[in-house]
Write a structure and sequence with these properties.
Elements: E1 7-12, H1 16-25, E2 35-41, H2 56-61, E3 67-70, H3 77-86, E4 90-94, H4 101-114, E5 118-121, H5 128-138, E6 144-154, H6 162-165, H7 168-171, H8 173-182, E7 189-198, E8 201-210, E9 213-223, E10 230-237, E11 242-244, H9 265-277, H10 284-304
Parallel strand pairs: 1-2, 1-3, 3-4, 4-5, 6-9
Antiparallel strand pairs: 6-10, 7-8, 8-9, 10-11
Helix pairs in contact: 3-4, 4-10, 8-10
Length: 313
């Protein structure tokens, strides 16, 4: 798509992420802005300042809509993405793209056939703490003996429903992507998985291996009781050094109101997507990451006895 063309955009799903997208898309502060927020789609009747509510059918069929930004629950992604691609729309979707590797692969193949961009959001890879950790790991020459991610959070209405979420490592596929990137885009192999579910919540444990690290553990703990989200990442190096991420720090206040404003994480993700649509940015690496990590999630779920498209290897 020519860089001077204005993209017509519709946001489908107006939860927390959807509202942030609408806010960002309506922000006129960025010089890169060459898009027009045509409207949003919601199951509820809403009033949002400077935005118009339209139907899903309008969003998918109107000729002035170039992009669909999809912020609904995972089980609803497949049908909307498939129809959007069939109608010639680029798609940015909150992770995961779909609830299985088979469907994800089908959707990416369809996007390629149509010459369209299908982009999966993962703002965890854009945070200061991730970048700090990635830089530290890249500077280490000794082997990595073990890697761990421990994530905790509460139920949200669909993460606990494995039919709707695709399973714990589909709904939280960003954790697999985090390990994948931190280990240099190293191909991951699922070596084991356990799932414990009780009245209070669930605990899912993944065991993984790759060429750069043979001992990788990811745990996901979700509880019925409301609790703050928490994520801890730790790597142990062959000499005993422990490398951890550090809490995100707020950006410093610009010294002048005239200073350029740094985009937030969702806006940064959007600008990467726009660059791919305009063929000025890389898309292949993100697509390869998405396709690989959802296959790993399916393999982990097979170990747990959940529905999956791939058997353990």
């Amino acid at each position: 798509m020519p860089s001077d063309d204005v993209l017509g955009v519709v946001v489908i799903g107006v939860g927390i992420a959807g509202r942030v997208r609408i806010r960002d898309l309506g922000d006129t502060a960025f010089p890169e802005r060459k898009w027009n927020l045509i409207g949003y789609v919601s199951r509820r009747t809403l009033e949002i300042a400077d935005a118009h509510q339209i139907t899903e059918e309008e969003a998918l069929t109107r000729p002035d809509v170039d992009v669909i930004v999809l912020c609904t629950e995972p089980h609803a992604h497949e049908s909307v993405i498939r129809r959007a691609l069939e109608h010639g729309k680029h798609v940015l979707v909150e992770f995961p793209v779909a609830t299985s590797a088979r469907v994800t692969e089908e959707l990416y193949t369809l996007a390629e056939q149509k010459g369209l961009i299908l982009h999966e959001e993962n703002i965890a890879l854009l945070t200061p703490s991730f970048r700090f950790l990635n830089e530290r790991l890249q500077a280490i020459e000794l082997p990595i003996t073990s890697a761990e991610i421990h994530f905790t959070g509460s139920y949200n209405g669909w993460t606990e429903d494995f039919e709707k979420s695709g399973g714990p490592f589909c709904a939280n596929v960003s954790l697999l992507q985090t390990i994948y990137v931190l280990l240099g885009n190293c191909s991951l192999t699922a070596t084991g998985g356990q799932l414990q579910v009780n009245d209070d919540g669930f605990l899912a444990t993944a065991k993984l291996s790759c060429e750069k690290c043979k001992d990788i553990t990811i745990t996901i703990k979700r509880t019925r009781e409301k609790s703050a989200r928490s994520k801890e990442i730790k790597f142990v190096i062959a000499d005993g050094t422990v490398v951890k991420d550090t809490p995100d720090k707020p950006p410093p206040t610009p010294p002048s109101s005239q200073a350029p404003r740094k985009p937030g994480l969702f806006m940064e993700d959007w600008l990467k997507f726009v660059a791919a649509v305009r063929e000025t940015g890389d898309h292949a690496a993100g697509a390869a990451r998405t396709r690989h990590c959802i296959r790993v999630a399916d393999a982990l779920h097979a170990f747990m006895g959940l529905r999956g498209d791939e058997a353990p290897s």
